[in-house]
Amino acid sequence: MTLTSRVEFTAREGRREEFIQAAKALAAATQDEPGTLRYDWYQDADPDSFVVIEEYVDSEAAFAHNAHCDELLKRAFELGELTAMQLHGDISPELQTFADNMPGTKTFPPLA
Q: For the domain that residue 25 is a member of, what is the CATH number?
């Protein structure tokens, strides 16, 4: 089963355009990631609110993405505030630990 995440960000005051550039750079960086199936950014009606939908073959691929895009992710967190994260799919113990340490994060494993 794949792992899908939905992550919401709010651009910090006066940083909207920079945040958009960071989001576009992240999307471009995922093009060559073998375990990344989807990485799409969306904008809310509020011009400072953004959502990224990510899909990976598994939890390991999500961690590989985080390692590959470490500097870009740091930049995104500098320019925006994570307001919510949902993780859907097979949640590995390592991913659950990661989620437990990220404010506003919920995990949704498949029904048994």
A: 3.30.70.100
